[in-house]
Amino acid sequence: MTTRKTPRSPLAGTPSLLRAINDRAALELLLANGPLSRTQIGSLTGLSKPTASQLLARLEAVGLVVPVGTTAGGPGPNAQLYQVNPAAAHVAGVDVTSTSVRVAVADITGTTLAEHRVSTKGWSAAETVERVAEAVAETVRRAQLAPGALREVVIGIGGAPDPVTGKLRYASHLPGWHSPRLVEELELALGAPVSIENDVNLAAVAEQAGGAAAGCEDFVLLWAEEGIGAAIVLAGRLHRGFTGGAGEVGYMPVPDAPVSLNSRRKVTGGFQDLAGEPAVLALARRHGLRGADAAQAVAGALGTAEGEAFLTELAERLAVGLAVIASVVDPELVVLSGGTPTAGGERLRELVQEALGRMSIPRPEVRLSAVPGPPVLTGALQRALASTRDVLFSTH
Questions:
Q1: Does residue 36 sit in helix, strand or coil?
Q2: Please, are residues 238 and 253 in contact by the beta-carbon 8 Å criterion?
Q3: For the sheet containing 150-157, what is the strand order?
Q4: What is the DSSP string of 145-168?
Q5: Which of 17, 136, 151, 310 supports an S-S bond with 13, CB 3.0-4.6 Å?
Q6: What is the pLDDT of residues 95-147, one digit of tens each?
Q7: If one looks up domain 15-84 in CATH, what number appears?
Q8: Domain 214-370 has CATH 3.90.79.10
Q9: Predicted TM-score of the model (pTM)
Q10: CA quadruple 230, 233, 238, 242: dihedral sign
Q11: Exposed, middle or buried: residue 142 (CB in 10 Å: 0-12, 13-18, 19+)?
């Protein structure tokens, strides 16, 4: 196992500030490496044994670490091992689509304790908040936690929350999610702080945390499924734009797709009409292929002559939009995510890479999503964990 270390440069500040910095460094090490002894923590942080002992006693007293056995097999007496206390805090991630709400609950170490999915069929707009609260409460129950156990809930949704007004934009397909007081209503119903984030942005968070974009500071994630969307990460941070709509590339004008000439009244056409699910299914039919959805049509195309021609044309369509994005953003990397690229696998990725290389002067590497599990839900949990740890590890 590779052990992650923290910088050992001297720190200036008050004793309380230094204690807080050292405590956080130790907690981050325990999260990254698992159980560690006092000696190991001292070695990794550069702290003396007495200081490391005081640190662990302090963290144990406030319930942030717990002893979990001892070392064995080495010279000298066995050493006590410590880990971050999983019960110190719990969070939830929620993935909202036009057909379902999926919830996951995790402890502060990132271990998922329970998942639950409910269909939104038959939901009225007026009961959306109540139904979401019920789904979260059921997931908390399945995780064997008490009501009110959540420190934060992050909701991923196919729209863009306006950072000024709080109104959800680009989400006409989601009735019940347009109240200007939506976050307040959800917080009241859920009994926890709530954040709403664009779903594709959360997929990018997941890729950056432990997927195809791990270690990458500048990348674009293109999501292709029922709709088309993108997330843009610059200098390691999500770029949301002035109104929160950065990455809403489904409406982006591109060659060979009709363009809306009155976007204030109705938004139609653009990249969505070239590479969204209806367009992919129509393209598949032209090549003699069928599928219940785009992913099924793409998966069925692999390994056949007709399928190769279809995949080549689909890759060119995806590359048209990516070439525009790459020309503006110049990313190091493009991550393909969503049902359509996942179904196309390595062959579709290769074809997109080749087509993008022909169309664009910037030629970023193209990778497939590498998130183990559903990307949006995983990203929602990652965002909730990061926020909760930031507060918990800094204010104890």
A1: strand
A2: no
A3: 112-119, 100-107, 90-96, 150-157, 194-198
A4: --TT-EEEEEEEESSEE-TTT-PE
A5: 17
A6: 999 999 999 999 999 999 999 999 999 898 889 999 999 999 999 999 999 99
A7: 1.10.10.10
A8: no
A9: 0.91
A10: negative
A11: middle
